[in-house]
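Thread: Methylamine utilization protein MauG, structure

OP (GT): Posting the sequence first so everyone is looking at the same thing. Length is 387 residues per the record. Can we get the structure tokens written out before standup tomorrow? I want them in the notebook alongside the other entries.
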Amino acid sequence: MRHYHHKMNKIAAIGFVLFLVISVSWMNQMPLAYWEGSLDSLASQYRRPIEEWPTPVIDAGVPWEEFSSLPKVDSHYFAVMESPAVVLGKYLFFDPILSGSNQISCSSCHNPQTSWADKNTVPVGNDHLEGTRNTPSLLNVYARKTLFWDGRANNLEEQALAPIEAHHEMNMELSKLIPKLKAIPAYNKLFIAAFGDEDYAMPEVMKALAAFQRTLASRRSRFDEFIEGNYNALSDQEIQGLHLFRTKARCMNCHSGKFFTDDAFHNVGLTYYKRKYEDLGRYLVTNDPADIGKFRTPSLRDVMNTDPWMHNGLFWDMTGLLNMYNSGMQMNSATPEQKAADPNYPVTDPLMKKLNLSKTEIQSIVAFLHSITATKYRMRRPESLPR
């Protein structure tokens, strides 16, 4: 009997050790949100300087930056807005004279009333033709490393040409644009003031447009105030959303830094390869099969003002969009058989994984996204245009 009890105690001890090993292993693999306690406890971990926040859960090898706040409005802002190149650029941006029909301006798609996007699934341009990709907001475009969803432009000056020329956008023959502008004395004076030369051409048009667009910046949000020490700026639910964003929801693998973007390109599973809505994304720029279906990570600053979302404007509801990410988005990723048969068959980015977020957790993330969305600032259009 004594031997029996000794044996049973030994088995129980081994079982307990195995339980501890399995439990610790499980806890080490799970995001903090699974096991760190109440919302009050979670909030206390974030209502402190950002360098003391819990470390985000980032996959190995993924570059990221800690969040940082936007600056307060610079006292030089108004002087910048009155500089000759910006004044000229603003007129050009809002003037339909840049289009072949004299009916479409840059602001037709990048509307100051809708956070410099257009609230359409895809834009509608010349002859009421639809584009194929959603209009991105121009907010903070000065900070982007590349432009367009596929990154085909490296700066704002280069970017300006494409929509002016495109038949389904502004449909303007560049050889005719400069004579149109030079026929207007008021524009000639503006170009001389901006560039000191009456013999201007397309490079000056592009520089002026770029100068104006570089002034389009997000206003500070409640999240910026929170980072800087106003710990009542976010609710407990929003803080839970912030924590999930950094951990279980895996958002910070792509959306980090001051502007909530890595400025990189990812295939999140919306390529529609060899289907009606196929868009091969960055591959059309690089011709690199590894880029098939990849699109630039958008900034999430003011995200709740810039719907619909994704490169194709597919989602009008943020909960629906998060449900998509929650699924892991692997349904369109190439199987080994498909990849063997077609080496160009797109593979969804391995950063996309099933998240197992609850409805309550998704609601908290939506709440957090509202906290990084600032009050809408609606720049006034020019009361009149140079004529």
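GT: Both are above now. Quick notes for whoever picks this up: The radius of gyration is 26 Å. The chain has two domains: 32-70+220-371, 77-213.
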